[in-house]
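Rotation project, supervised by the postdoc (A.L.). Task for the rotation student: set up a whole-complex structure prediction and record inputs and outputs verbatim in this book. Inputs entered:
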Amino acid sequence: MSLRRFIAVRVAATVPILFGVSVLTFALVHLTPGDPIDQMVALNPQISAAEEAAIRARYGLDGPVWQQYLTWMGNVLQGDLGTVISVDQPVLPYIMARLPETIALGLFGWAIALLIAIPAGIYAAVNKDTLGDDLSRVFALSGISLPNFWLGLMLILVFALWLDLWPVLAPDKPLLSADMLWYLVLPGVTIGTASSATLMRVMRSSMAEELNKEYVTAARAKGLPERTVVLKHVLRNSLISVTTIAAFLTASIFAGAVVVEQVFAWPGLGRAFVGAIVGREVDLIMAITLFTGVTIILANLLADIMYAVLDPRIRYD
Amino acid sequence: MSTDRGRIRITGFDADRVESREPLSDWTETRDTGTEGRWVRAWREFRRNRSAMLGLYIVIVMSLLALFARPITIAGVTVQPFSLAPYDPGAILYAQGLDVSAYEAPSLAHPFGTDGSARDVFSRVLYGGRFSLSIGFIVVLVTAAIGLVYGAIAGYYGGWVDETLMRILDLIFAFPGLLLALIIVAVLGKGYWELVLAFTAIGWAGYARLIRGEILKVKENEYVLAAKALGARDRRIIFRHVVPNAIAPLVVQASLSIGTVVIGVAALGFLGLGLPPSSAEWGTMLDQTRQTIVQGPGGSIPWWVTVFPGGAIFLFVMSMNLIGDGINDALDAQEGEDVARGGEV
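Outputs recorded:
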């Protein structure tokens, strides 16, 4: 099977999964008693029953659940993701306004995770059972055991309140300004630490495994400098197992954003999702869930493609 | 040499030499511990692992502290009369006529200080262990059991059964863990059993996939074929012959995921979607401190309301991970030298 065909098959296979995700989420959210209209009515008792019905009809919240689902589905297929009822704004621009914030945060977290994990993993594997290796293990273990929201709070406490190196709240500046990038360091570290620890562990063990293989002995025997052996031959092969984990971590970084954005009051998708849950914004919950579903599936697909690029022995059949 | 056995003459075999045979390998009496089960051996291996034992001790101590924090009464009968926590975790201390204000720094009377409602943080942290620890253990037991049965059925029967069951799994995996838990808690409302259900719903899938993979490997063994040939029922073959041989990775996974569940529960509490706001659950306690940290109560910063509940989560999860790594190593060591060398070198 060629790579192109493989990608096509995999993309086609995501359609039923996404359909299932949408049905499941829709059903779950509609099992919940209460929707934004109920809250609206509770706040404005003068709304009559007839007016309430009219509002429901306007937002497609009347009729049986399956009918509501079909209406929603029909709208989505035409590019209409629905409405955020509390602010009476279409879902798509609402999400698009928050997406860059989350992507910036996620990329920052990713960059920090990679910057720490890859060199530290290489170092630990090459200098096995030394003090540095032990320290890296302690770091990895602490990293995966730290709840990210607590880490965020502690970073604020130490670096923003006690040492006063960072502002406590995000400055009101455009996303790509120097102030903002500086502010992003704390949330970035918060979101990246757990991933960095996991990545480092994988990097270390796969690197250590590769270092024991015969081609390494061969490369050393022909007189290549150790640097070339490690950074050129071994690293490339170790990265294969790292890429799978990396794809998996993309999902966890996204899930981490839900919590970390809350800690730093960061106006991204994760915070919007928590708001949507609290306010029962059906359309918004659906849109964000599907969006993250697509992200996860794409990340996994990307990992498989990277596999093929990094290791030509891998075939698809 | 030869031995006479009835009318058959056996040559080349000397019964005496068996008794006093020379060691051909490094086989010794002390190495062979007879019929000792692999779990006993794993435990022996585990006990030698100092960091894992440290984790085990911490978990035991924390569990006991949570258990004995306040008396437990079931249906009017006090089953656990001890009270290690000096105050009721929910008590607002100045309301009880005590000379205590909100946000008092740690002192001898209040080792972890008091929180914004003048409640004793030390008592709350001790008591809070009950929520996180019990939810963690319950969820992992239930999810591992569900995943075991589900994965065993999928892996053993294969074919369309497998295909159908695995597509359902894909569905669960398309949600990032916490998102589905959030939706479920939103549906069910806040509360203890609601949290258990939410984390069960997202947790079993991982075990199912793991066990299915193991079953696929194990079922190729001849003893499964032999059991079939002897007319054993499917259920007996699965749970008596296949599952026990596939269960080691499940145990490792379970021990490692208790920490994940505890963090997840605390995260939901932190988002205000876990337990009711006044409960002493660790994550819920942190939710209330976030506001004060970011806005500042004026004057000094009450670091203790953040450090101690979060530190408790960290300590417990870290210890669980130490135990998990220890179990992993202990079970791994049995797989034979080659496998052990293939993994962590």
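Student's summary: Residues 60 and 66 of chain B are 10 Å apart (CA to CA).
Supervisor addendum: Confidence is low (pLDDT under 50) at residues 336-345 of chain B.
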